[in-house]
Design goal:
Layout lengths: L5 H18 L1 H31 L5 H19 L4 H13 L5 H28 L11 H11 L2 H20 L7 H17 L5 H13 L8 H31 L1 H18 L1
Helix pairs in contact: 1-2, 1-4, 2-3, 2-5, 2-9, 3-8, 4-5, 4-10, 5-9, 6-9, 7-8, 7-10, 9-10
């Protein structure tokens, strides 16, 4: 499909995801587990990088963490694993294009969300077994980030979640207009930097933050009330930002490209038969 027309590609991907989910649900679920693990493992490196610069007194410690985190989304896009935030966009476009039912949208979101959580939790558990989470100082960047996330107002978390997934889904959508692979990766990395550095709320990254803190020997006992205080509004915001801010809006703006794609395919078929 033409690199300049993202919508036909996103529609076809939603249909592909639907087919895998319905015919091989375990494969679909494990793909989500892998994506959750990828988010967590890259977040670990972002935290290590940020903490090292923070201890060195560099004011650029958070910028360094934000700059590296885009590696996670780039890896997820290339490996075609299932991340909840981008899945929101794909399946919403699937519903709007009638390739996916509302019931299938709900099933997909639940499977991917649960898989992402398990993946982040398993990676945090494995990382803890290396001893790397032992004896973290109380002022470690990990705990500082969690404190900000759990003490914020629910309404603020919701809108940070909406802004986050608006940008994250644009980081998936916009590069589809580009034909050069390096340009695509650069655009994705830059847009992820915008979300991370702005302090917006990514529900799956937050799962990884919480999971890592639970397995840290000097961390905190899992506080499910505080966790849900963050994850519920962040998740709802992510849905609004991805499904409405990107999927619905771009479907309305670019729906004519679906007709163009169909006409082009029909022309190719007629030419082949002639």
């Amino acid at each position: 499909m033409a690199a300049s027309n993202p919508l036909p590609y996103v529609v076809s991907e939603s249909a592909r995801k639907r087919h895998i989910m319905n015919t091989a649900p375990l494969r679909y679920f494990l793909s989500a587990v892998m994506a959750g693990g990828l988010i967590a493992v890259v977040l670990v490196v972002s935290l290590l990088l940020g903490q090292a610069l923070h201890l060195a007194g560099s004011p650029m410690y958070y910028a360094a963490s934000a700059g590296f985190f885009g590696t996670a989304l780039c890896t997820i896009i290339v490996s075609k694993t299932e991340l909840f935030t981008s899945n929101v966009m794909y399946m919403a476009v699937g519903v709007l294009s009638r390739r996916v039912s509302w019931k299938e949208l709900g099933k997909s979101w639940l499977l991917v969300y649960a898989g992402n959580f398990i993946g982040a939790l398993l990676l945090a558990l494995m990382y803890a077994q290396t001893g790397a989470l032992a004896h973290l100082p109380a002022d470690h960047l990990l705990f500082d980030v969690i404190a900000h996330k759990t003490h914020a107002d629910s309404w603020a978390i919701f809108w940070k979640g909406a802004l986050c997934n608006w940008i994250i889904c644009l980081a998936v959508w916009v590069p589809l207009r580009l034909s050069n692979d390096m340009a695509k990766l650069a655009m994705t990395m830059l847009l992820v930097f915008v979300f991370f550095f702005s302090g917006y709320e990514h529900s799956i990254a937050n799962m990884a933050f919480f999971s890592l803190s639970w397995f840290a020997s000097s961390g905190v006992t899992p506080d499910w009330a505080a966790t849900l205080h963050n994850l519920i509004p962040a998740t709802l915001g992510n849905i609004v930002g991805g499904a409405i801010g990107v999927a619905a809006l771009n479907f309305y703006l670019e729906r004519d490209t679906l007709a163009e794609e169909s006409t082009a395919v029909q022309g190719e078929v007629a030419l082949a038969r002639s």
